[in-house]
């Protein structure tokens, strides 16, 4: 018996139906008509004491994904033809069809199926209605009717048709959707074209590339990606050869890393009560135990492959159960009393011994290529000096036990590496480090401590040379050294882009590499530096994987974007640059709705950076602009002053400002954009941000009335209480409020705090917060909520139980995002129904 299976594109077109508002689904996917058979009746009833009923087969699960399909179209009257069974002697036949329902916003209505047969309707895998026991006798009234709601999403509607030999009528059917009063119809254009939009399901489902790592010789690359489904996703690893071909695909290499010199992978494994390091051939998967009975936790492998350095946590003095004497401002943080210790494990002998000993935490920055020298970092805190953290760098020679202090008590030091073949080090630090040696700001003026610069440090002379003083991008990640190239390769925040660069250690010259994406999310090089792989995305495409043979052009290895976007429609992003009155360019970009009509007026949503980290030019993000645009908004993103990546002066405007220039930039840019683009409804503009961006959302409402709705996630409402209450509030403030404290600059802590200016807020404001947020305490949102309630202003506070600074648990994350969608729909689109469904009024509010 041959089974035909089919899969096709849908279309929803308007045809005359039961009412002028009905939308008939006229194109779909047919999965064929299949004969059914009766089971062997071993007993007359099953475990539920129920006799077998052939019609019950219409309710059996059916998975259409991955099946072959063919396109079907409705007749002029809107009916889909149901083929007759090719096996008329079979006791029954089952025909399966799917249709797509696409709505850019929240809608609710009624699915109606007309026909004279036995039908079942499913939406998203859930049974909505069926009539298998009582087939309809007329096709002028609905055989089935079911309520359907869509929340800015794409939903697959599955129709099953069961035919029995005794059925006299042909089971052709018509499927339509009738939106309830005041609710939006389905998007007929998207459905007719067989496309969907970038919605929340798209953002949280499907494949995403995570990382790429090149073997020492450059012969192989380990690619890690995930096929994401909330709570059910899986992570995969691929080994690709130098041509880009997949030579092995597995789920057994999660956490594996390349050995420093050999094209073998190391993977940690638990074997009973002991831990082992397995040495794995990349293509055959052959395994051998490379190191047995591993001590410690995380590890650092020496480049000579002879020694493994382990980090262990030493437990500090325990806290008393009833009364705790705090030892430091950071003592409330879990594990603060513990310290990191480093141990050395000799692979050949199995000898395990301490490398460091003491109270202060320490780490290994680097090990020389021959394993003979180590760079150690020793860290302590001085609360009387800002910034509080101090790092000392030691040069340790194990063979002689000699320890040299190279750098003492330096601030904002991020990384240190040996420069092979020289007596120099490559140091990553801030513009303020080394007595402002790398700063371009006026003498002794503090720069943004989160801005990263490169320095060259000579071990013999202690001379320090700034390498990126006139290089505006902020150093992100120095991946490694290429011996043939005599160069380090690094990524940097280049404004809203994350770009790749090469530092020639012979000339100190920095050269940009020819990366094909705006944002490089992961990259890796071979030991020689002649082979480089990277992955990334841009504003108008999803992830892509490339190989770059320096200094040549990029070769596309895996175009995941093409796979993901083949049936997705969005309007490509466009750049927008706002020139401030004092002559500073503010970088921005925006998306238009997929069905954009330049003669219409659209509401707009504005999103901006949080902390000092710039927003990047990626299509797929959590606060996704293309996703907001698909719901009928103009979606504008801005990187106002204060963020890194645009030069030291730009980033330094974050210090002791707490919104001053940043707010002016956002307000000015929004007004300029609205003036230059007549399709923006100036009375329907919303804004949103998280963390420092959440603070900015609150602060903006105290400065302007241009916004019709605002959303603040984990925002700071009182700078002084955040300084005291956040786990990192005091250290973050050492940058954002450099040398300013509540006692010497009270105006900064009050006049810039939204809580102290709550009476100026009139914009409907939604506050979102995780109840377990240790970065920005939930009380920050509670305080402003209380104030606005007392003032009689429009405010809502929604808390997410057990969630920290980011909402990560899938079910809560889903509610979190739908809450934002519904808030904007209520105040920017005058559609309160979505909000009312999520949060119906209680008896206390009526």
Architecture overview:
The protein contains 14 helices and 46 strands. The protein is mostly beta strands. Among the domains are: 11-40 and 51-196, Jelly Rolls (Sandwich); 574-836, Rossmann fold (3-Layer(aba) Sandwich). Strands 1, 2, 3, 4, 5, 6, 7, 8, 9 and 10 form a ten-stranded antiparallel sheet that branches. The chain has an eight-stranded mixed sheet with strand order 39-40-42-41-43-44-45-46, with helices on both faces. Strand 6 (118-123) and strand 7 form a beta hairpin. Helix 9 crosses helix 10 (729-736). The radius of gyration is 31 Å and the shape is globular.
Number of strands: 46
Query: What spatial form do the alpha-carbon principal axes imply?
Result: globular
Strand content: 35-45%
- Would you tell me which CATH topology of one domain applies? Rossmann fold
Radius of gyration: 31 Å
CATH-wise, what's the superfamily of one domain? Answer: Alpha/Beta hydrolase fold, catalytic domain
Q: According to CATH, what is the class of one domain?
A: Alpha Beta
Counting H and I runs of at least 4 residues, what is the number of helices?
14
Query: How widely separated are the two ends?
Result: 63 Å
Query: Which architecture of one domain does the CATH hierarchy give at level 2?
Result: 3-Layer(aba) Sandwich
Helical content (DSSP H or I, runs of 4+)? 10-25%
Please state the oligomeric state of the protein chains shown: single chain
Largest sheet report: 10 strands, antiparallel
> Helix/strand-derived class?
mainly beta
Mean pLDDT: 93
Query: Ranges with pLDDT <50 over ≥5 residues?
Result: 1-20
